[in-house]
Amino acid sequence: MHQLLDEALTSHADAWAVRDQAGRWTYQELADRSHGYARWLHSLGVRPGERVLTKLESDRDLVALCYAVSRLGAVFVPVNPAMKLFHLRAVLENAEPVVVITTEKDLAWLPENVGAPAYDIELIRPLAEELGGGEPLASPAVSAQTPAALVYTSGSTATPKAVICPHAQMVFASEAIQQVLGYREDDVVFCRFPISWDYGLYKILLSCLGRSELVLAGVESDLLLLNRMWETGATVVPIVPSLASMIVKLAERQPDRLPEVRMFTNTGAALPRGTVEALTAAFPKAQVVRQFGQTECKRISIVPPGAEHVPPGSVGRPLPGTRVVVLAPDGTELPTGEVGEIVVAGPHVMPGYWRMDEQTERAFRPGPDGRRRLHTGDFGRLDAEGNLYFEGRRDDMFKRKGIRMSTVEIEAAAADVSGVRAAAAVPPGEGYDLTLFVESELPPGVILREIAGRLEPAKVPAMCRVLNEMPLTQHGKVDRTGLAAWLRDEG
């Protein structure tokens, strides 16, 4: 993975590579600092395959650490700086790091049995600067199948589980995405997401492939977000629905001070139609690119920028060099148009979950050719042209009034209503019926009438609740569990 940075040096050593609140580095400066951190880690005895865990806000040094760990053949384990002790204990036990790098504040409450020396990043920075430059440290031979990172995700288990991300899969996925999105050397990629998320982590590699500048803005104030985008000259902005809504609100307040964004890339959940329209109205040079994927293979499909041939509602075509099939419950491949489980094959499919054999065997299974495929747990269909349509996760499917339906189609219908900024459907539960939560200024009755004009009667929610702001999980997704708990308590 670190070779991507070294290749960028051959032509763009003096170009800007990464920026945070404190300053910016060129590609040469980033490489030098990565060598400094690599020397420091090597002096501690870090060897290939060992885990280096970081619990830090996203800044230039964290990017340098990512490349430094790669240079040693060790495994980069970034955890969310907001992770609480309950989950951190489980992550430390699962990852068994040999080094932990965090802040002075977090050092005070790390578990006593952390099992590894822990260091304050503020004390390491000057050491890495001093050790940077000069002749590079001789890197060990790193196999393409060696894990480069463990990315912890929430999911069906009580504690976070780590997706094993080898160098080969990470580099292939990055190059395939770059082939479609086309980051450029004049791009400024404005990243609001922590590097502990794969959405943030891969921006390091994509920006490097495009010889672009990466702006890390995770600690910026929400109120200053648009000003920061303007000051840095942002041209590419990765978004999720909640961030898109925030940008729209800020753009309405200061329409004369907007950056010339050329591309918004969206994943995580579909953007409401009104949000897309508002983004393109505020940023007339920008295209909103839909993407679909999972950490377990990084990306499944993308609607290419400027692609007018992709039908509405589609999440695009599979990445170059990959394949998607739709399977019935018995494992047989379904014909075009029929809904089944989305199964992914290709060089980007990860080998499994770290030290979780049962979960790995459930999600990663051999296909007819013997190669491992990812059974996503997502449902969808393919059309005759190979476009993929997402219909919802297994957990999103439920029956109501004898009809099988998905929260995704209900949320899509709500998002199609002009004036709805975000929507979340909660299936029927103990003491409550199908309920829709929305961010909007529209009255609940108006929204339900609009949905009744789009869906069959059984799929129209019994109730609509209007919120000022959707509750989000630590990973930036709508907290449906919290919404369901609120309905149970209310009932």
UniProtKB/TrEMBL annotation:
Listed Pfam families: AMP-binding (PF00501)
InterPro entries: AMP-bd_C_sf, AMP-dep_synth/lig_dom, ANL_N_sf, ATP-dep_AMP-bd_enzyme
Occurrences of domain AMP-dependent synthetase/ligase (ranges): 6-354
Name recorded for this polypeptide: AMP-binding protein
